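hey m, so remember when u said the C-alpha coordinates were messed up on ur end? i reran from scratch. heres the input so u can diff it against urs
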Amino acid sequence: MNYKYFLILLVLAILNINAQEITHTERERLLKEADTAFNEGLELIEEGNTPEAHNQWDKAIVRYERLASDKSYQNYKLFYNLANAYFLKDDLGHAILNYKKAEKLMPFDAKLNDNLAYAKSRRVDNIEEQEQKRVLKTLFFMHYDIPLFWREIIFLASFSCFWIALLVLRFKSMDWLKWCCGIAGLLTLAMAVSVTISIKSAKQLNGIVIVEEADAYKGGNKAYEKSFDEPLHAGTELVIIGENEHWYEFKLNNGATGWLPKQTVGTY
Protein backbone atom coordinates (compact mmCIF):
# COMPACT_ATOMS: atom_id res chain seq x y z
CA MET A 1 0.00 0.00 0.00
CA ASN A 2 2.80 2.41 0.92
CA TYR A 3 4.53 1.55 -2.36
CA LYS A 4 1.41 2.52 -4.33
CA TYR A 5 1.16 5.83 -2.49
CA PHE A 6 4.81 6.46 -3.25
CA LEU A 7 4.23 5.90 -6.97
CA ILE A 8 1.23 8.23 -6.96
CA LEU A 9 3.22 10.97 -5.22
CA LEU A 10 6.11 10.48 -7.64
CA VAL A 11 3.85 10.81 -10.69
CA LEU A 12 2.24 13.95 -9.23
CA ALA A 13 5.67 15.43 -8.56
CA ILE A 14 6.78 14.76 -12.14
CA LEU A 15 3.59 16.29 -13.50
CA ASN A 16 4.11 19.33 -11.30
CA ILE A 17 7.67 19.81 -12.58
CA ASN A 18 6.53 19.49 -16.18
CA ALA A 19 3.73 21.95 -15.51
CA GLN A 20 6.29 24.65 -14.83
CA GLU A 21 8.05 24.09 -18.16
CA ILE A 22 6.31 25.71 -21.12
CA THR A 23 7.72 25.12 -24.57
CA HIS A 24 7.55 27.83 -27.22
CA THR A 25 4.89 25.86 -29.12
CA GLU A 26 2.75 25.39 -26.02
CA ARG A 27 3.17 29.05 -25.13
CA GLU A 28 1.90 30.14 -28.54
CA ARG A 29 -1.04 27.74 -28.25
CA LEU A 30 -2.01 28.92 -24.77
CA LEU A 31 -1.76 32.57 -25.77
CA LYS A 32 -3.89 32.05 -28.87
CA GLU A 33 -6.52 30.09 -26.94
CA ALA A 34 -6.59 32.70 -24.17
CA ASP A 35 -6.97 35.63 -26.56
CA THR A 36 -9.67 33.79 -28.52
CA ALA A 37 -11.64 32.95 -25.37
CA PHE A 38 -11.32 36.52 -24.10
CA ASN A 39 -12.62 38.01 -27.37
CA GLU A 40 -15.42 35.44 -27.61
CA GLY A 41 -16.51 36.50 -24.14
CA LEU A 42 -16.81 40.10 -25.32
CA GLU A 43 -18.91 39.01 -28.31
CA LEU A 44 -21.19 36.92 -26.10
CA ILE A 45 -21.79 39.88 -23.79
CA GLU A 46 -22.93 41.92 -26.77
CA GLU A 47 -25.36 39.10 -27.60
CA GLY A 48 -26.67 39.14 -24.03
CA ASN A 49 -25.28 35.71 -23.13
CA THR A 50 -23.60 36.63 -19.83
CA PRO A 51 -23.18 33.10 -18.36
CA GLU A 52 -21.36 31.78 -21.43
CA ALA A 53 -19.28 34.97 -21.61
CA HIS A 54 -18.09 34.32 -18.07
CA ASN A 55 -17.25 30.73 -19.02
CA GLN A 56 -15.07 32.01 -21.86
CA TRP A 57 -13.30 34.47 -19.56
CA ASP A 58 -12.70 31.64 -17.10
CA LYS A 59 -10.98 29.72 -19.92
CA ALA A 60 -8.91 32.79 -20.77
CA ILE A 61 -7.90 33.30 -17.13
CA VAL A 62 -6.76 29.67 -16.73
CA ARG A 63 -4.51 29.99 -19.78
CA TYR A 64 -3.17 33.45 -18.92
CA GLU A 65 -2.39 32.24 -15.40
CA ARG A 66 -0.61 29.20 -16.82
CA LEU A 67 1.55 31.53 -18.92
CA ALA A 68 2.16 33.83 -15.95
CA SER A 69 3.46 30.85 -13.95
CA ASP A 70 6.39 30.67 -16.39
CA LYS A 71 8.92 33.10 -14.90
CA SER A 72 10.70 33.39 -18.26
CA TYR A 73 7.53 34.69 -19.93
CA GLN A 74 6.18 37.58 -17.93
CA ASN A 75 5.36 40.75 -19.80
CA TYR A 76 3.14 43.80 -19.61
CA LYS A 77 0.56 42.61 -22.13
CA LEU A 78 0.08 39.24 -20.42
CA PHE A 79 -0.68 40.77 -17.01
CA TYR A 80 -2.78 43.53 -18.61
CA ASN A 81 -4.99 41.02 -20.46
CA LEU A 82 -5.23 38.83 -17.35
CA ALA A 83 -6.30 41.86 -15.29
CA ASN A 84 -8.94 42.78 -17.87
CA ALA A 85 -10.35 39.25 -17.80
CA TYR A 86 -10.58 39.30 -14.01
CA PHE A 87 -12.17 42.75 -14.07
CA LEU A 88 -14.85 41.60 -16.51
CA LYS A 89 -15.56 38.77 -14.05
CA ASP A 90 -16.00 41.39 -11.27
CA ASP A 91 -12.96 40.01 -9.44
CA LEU A 92 -11.49 43.34 -8.31
CA GLY A 93 -8.77 41.82 -6.15
CA HIS A 94 -7.10 39.79 -8.89
CA ALA A 95 -7.77 42.52 -11.45
CA ILE A 96 -5.94 45.20 -9.45
CA LEU A 97 -3.17 42.74 -8.54
CA ASN A 98 -2.43 42.04 -12.21
CA TYR A 99 -2.80 45.69 -13.24
CA LYS A 100 -0.13 46.47 -10.61
CA LYS A 101 2.11 43.70 -11.99
CA ALA A 102 1.69 45.18 -15.47
CA GLU A 103 2.41 48.66 -14.10
CA LYS A 104 5.79 47.51 -12.75
CA LEU A 105 6.76 46.42 -16.26
CA MET A 106 5.20 49.36 -18.15
CA PRO A 107 4.69 52.38 -15.86
CA PHE A 108 2.89 55.48 -17.12
CA ASP A 109 0.95 53.60 -19.82
CA ALA A 110 -2.21 55.66 -20.38
CA LYS A 111 -4.64 52.76 -21.00
CA LEU A 112 -3.29 50.81 -18.06
CA ASN A 113 -3.50 53.81 -15.74
CA ASP A 114 -7.10 54.47 -16.80
CA ASN A 115 -8.15 50.86 -16.21
CA LEU A 116 -6.32 50.68 -12.90
CA ALA A 117 -7.86 53.95 -11.70
CA TYR A 118 -11.35 52.75 -12.64
CA ALA A 119 -10.83 49.40 -10.91
CA LYS A 120 -9.66 51.21 -7.77
CA SER A 121 -12.75 53.43 -7.86
CA ARG A 122 -14.89 50.28 -7.55
CA ARG A 123 -13.28 49.18 -4.27
CA VAL A 124 -15.25 49.10 -1.03
CA ASP A 125 -12.38 50.39 1.12
CA ASN A 126 -11.35 54.02 0.68
CA ILE A 127 -8.11 54.33 2.63
CA GLU A 128 -6.60 57.81 2.47
CA GLU A 129 -2.85 58.30 2.25
CA GLN A 130 -1.10 59.81 5.23
CA GLU A 131 -0.93 63.61 5.08
CA GLN A 132 2.86 63.46 5.30
CA LYS A 133 3.06 61.28 2.18
CA ARG A 134 0.74 63.58 0.22
CA VAL A 135 2.94 66.56 1.12
CA LEU A 136 6.07 64.67 0.05
CA LYS A 137 4.49 63.82 -3.31
CA THR A 138 3.77 67.52 -3.87
CA LEU A 139 7.22 68.74 -2.83
CA PHE A 140 9.18 66.02 -4.61
CA PHE A 141 6.99 65.74 -7.70
CA MET A 142 9.96 64.86 -9.93
CA HIS A 143 10.56 61.69 -7.92
CA TYR A 144 6.92 60.56 -8.08
CA ASP A 145 5.91 61.85 -11.54
CA ILE A 146 8.97 61.07 -13.68
CA PRO A 147 9.65 57.41 -14.62
CA LEU A 148 12.82 55.84 -13.22
CA PHE A 149 14.33 55.47 -16.70
CA TRP A 150 14.13 59.22 -17.36
CA ARG A 151 15.45 60.08 -13.90
CA GLU A 152 18.47 57.91 -14.67
CA ILE A 153 18.97 59.83 -17.93
CA ILE A 154 18.69 63.16 -16.09
CA PHE A 155 21.22 61.95 -13.52
CA LEU A 156 23.75 61.00 -16.21
CA ALA A 157 23.23 64.25 -18.12
CA SER A 158 23.53 66.49 -15.06
CA PHE A 159 26.52 64.49 -13.78
CA SER A 160 28.29 65.00 -17.13
CA CYS A 161 27.41 68.71 -17.25
CA PHE A 162 28.71 69.20 -13.70
CA TRP A 163 32.14 67.75 -14.43
CA ILE A 164 32.46 69.45 -17.83
CA ALA A 165 31.59 72.82 -16.27
CA LEU A 166 33.99 72.19 -13.40
CA LEU A 167 36.77 71.32 -15.84
CA VAL A 168 36.19 74.50 -17.89
CA LEU A 169 36.15 76.63 -14.71
CA ARG A 170 39.66 75.45 -13.90
CA PHE A 171 40.91 77.33 -16.93
CA LYS A 172 38.46 80.21 -17.17
CA SER A 173 36.25 81.74 -14.50
CA MET A 174 32.74 82.65 -15.67
CA ASP A 175 29.94 83.57 -13.29
CA TRP A 176 27.16 82.03 -15.38
CA LEU A 177 29.12 78.78 -15.66
CA LYS A 178 29.52 78.68 -11.88
CA TRP A 179 25.74 78.89 -11.57
CA CYS A 180 25.33 76.11 -14.13
CA CYS A 181 27.87 73.98 -12.29
CA GLY A 182 26.03 74.49 -8.99
CA ILE A 183 22.61 73.70 -10.48
CA ALA A 184 23.98 70.60 -12.24
CA GLY A 185 25.57 69.45 -8.99
CA LEU A 186 22.33 69.84 -7.03
CA LEU A 187 20.34 68.09 -9.76
CA THR A 188 22.85 65.24 -9.83
CA LEU A 189 22.56 64.80 -6.07
CA ALA A 190 18.75 64.94 -6.15
CA MET A 191 18.49 62.39 -8.97
CA ALA A 192 21.03 60.09 -7.29
CA VAL A 193 18.91 60.03 -4.12
CA SER A 194 15.68 59.61 -6.11
CA VAL A 195 17.03 56.72 -8.21
CA THR A 196 18.45 54.97 -5.13
CA ILE A 197 15.10 55.21 -3.32
CA SER A 198 13.24 53.84 -6.36
CA ILE A 199 15.62 50.90 -6.75
CA LYS A 200 15.22 50.00 -3.07
CA SER A 201 11.43 50.41 -3.30
CA ALA A 202 11.32 48.04 -6.28
CA LYS A 203 12.57 45.27 -3.96
CA GLN A 204 9.74 45.94 -1.50
CA LEU A 205 7.00 43.32 -1.39
CA ASN A 206 3.52 44.76 -1.90
CA GLY A 207 0.17 43.04 -1.66
CA ILE A 208 -3.48 43.23 -2.70
CA VAL A 209 -6.43 41.69 -0.88
CA ILE A 210 -7.73 39.12 -3.40
CA VAL A 211 -10.77 37.78 -1.53
CA GLU A 212 -14.13 39.51 -1.18
CA GLU A 213 -13.38 40.37 2.45
CA ALA A 214 -10.78 39.39 5.03
CA ASP A 215 -10.50 40.10 8.76
CA ALA A 216 -7.14 41.49 9.86
CA TYR A 217 -5.66 40.58 13.23
CA LYS A 218 -3.13 42.16 15.58
CA GLY A 219 -0.87 39.13 15.29
CA GLY A 220 -0.17 36.24 12.98
CA ASN A 221 -2.88 34.01 14.41
CA LYS A 222 -6.67 34.15 14.84
CA ALA A 223 -6.14 33.96 18.59
CA TYR A 224 -5.28 37.68 18.50
CA GLU A 225 -7.82 40.51 18.50
CA LYS A 226 -9.02 41.92 15.21
CA SER A 227 -7.14 45.00 14.02
CA PHE A 228 -10.21 46.81 12.68
CA ASP A 229 -13.94 46.86 13.30
CA GLU A 230 -14.63 46.03 9.65
CA PRO A 231 -12.89 43.52 7.37
CA LEU A 232 -10.66 44.61 4.50
CA HIS A 233 -12.14 44.12 1.05
CA ALA A 234 -10.96 43.05 -2.40
CA GLY A 235 -8.47 45.39 -4.04
CA THR A 236 -7.14 47.02 -0.87
CA GLU A 237 -3.42 47.78 -1.26
CA LEU A 238 -0.87 46.69 1.33
CA VAL A 239 2.84 46.97 2.02
CA ILE A 240 4.19 43.68 3.37
CA ILE A 241 6.42 44.39 6.38
CA GLY A 242 6.75 40.90 7.85
CA GLU A 243 5.49 37.33 7.69
CA ASN A 244 5.38 33.94 9.32
CA GLU A 245 4.55 30.59 7.76
CA HIS A 246 0.88 31.31 7.11
CA TRP A 247 0.41 35.06 7.65
CA TYR A 248 1.57 38.41 6.25
CA GLU A 249 2.13 41.46 8.44
CA PHE A 250 1.12 44.58 6.50
CA LYS A 251 0.84 48.35 6.57
CA LEU A 252 -1.97 50.33 4.91
CA ASN A 253 -1.64 53.70 3.16
CA ASN A 254 -2.91 55.43 6.29
CA GLY A 255 -0.20 53.82 8.43
CA ALA A 256 -2.44 51.23 10.14
CA THR A 257 -0.96 47.75 10.51
CA GLY A 258 -2.21 44.22 10.98
CA TRP A 259 -1.89 40.59 9.90
CA LEU A 260 -3.76 38.69 7.17
CA PRO A 261 -3.73 35.01 6.16
CA LYS A 262 -1.47 34.52 3.13
CA GLN A 263 -4.24 32.93 1.07
CA THR A 264 -6.18 36.23 1.21
CA VAL A 265 -3.33 38.28 -0.27
CA GLY A 266 -1.72 38.38 -3.71
CA THR A 267 1.81 39.80 -3.81
CA TYR A 268 3.88 41.59 -6.44
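this time it looks ok to me. Strands lie at 206-209, 213-214, 232-233, 237-243, 247-251, 257-261, 265-267. if urs says something different then somethings off w ur setup not the seq
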